[in-house]
Structure formats: C-alpha cells, structure tokens
UniProtKB/TrEMBL annotation:
<comment type="similarity">
    <text>Belongs to the SlyX family.</text>
</comment>
<dbReference type="InterPro" id="IPR007236">
    <property type="entry name" value="SlyX"/>
</dbReference>
<protein>
    <recommendedName>
        <fullName>Protein SlyX homolog</fullName>
    </recommendedName>
</protein>
<dbReference type="Pfam" id="PF04102">
    <property type="entry name" value="SlyX"/>
</dbReference>
Length: 69
C-alpha cells in the first residue's frame, strides 16, 4: 500500500468514526430533548395544581375582623 493509499484509509477511518460519534450525539440530544419536554409538561401540571390549591385556600379563609377591633 502506498503512502497516499494509507493516508486515504486513515482519513476514511476518521470520517467513519466522526460520523458514528455525530450519530451517537444526535441520539443523546434527542433523548435529552424528550426528557426536557416531559419535565416541562410535569412542571406545567404542578404549576396548575399549585395555583388551584392556592385558589382553594384563599376561598377557605373567611374575611373577618381581627379580634383586637
């Protein structure tokens, strides 16, 4: 194998390795995006629940004059 052929083989190996790395990173990014979306949805549900509970708590407290009046 000539020097030129060995350089081409090394370059092809490097490109194949980089392509595999890019694909793995893309898969990881997609997975992280899915997790982030699930967390965002959960946060939205928890926020709605908190606001609902806060609203119910406000309604449960009667508005009366303090005892020192």
């Amino acid at each position: 194998m000539s020097d030129m052929e060995s350089r081409i083989v090394r370059l092809e190996e490097m490109v194949a390795h980089q392509a595999k790395t890019i694909e793995e990173l893309s898969d990881q990014l997609a997975e992280q995006w899915k997790v982030a979306e699930q967390m965002r949805a959960k946060l939205d549900r928890l926020t709605e629940r908190f606001l609902s509970l806060e609203e119910q708590a406000r309604e449960a407290i009667p508005v009366t004059r303090p005892p020192h009046y």
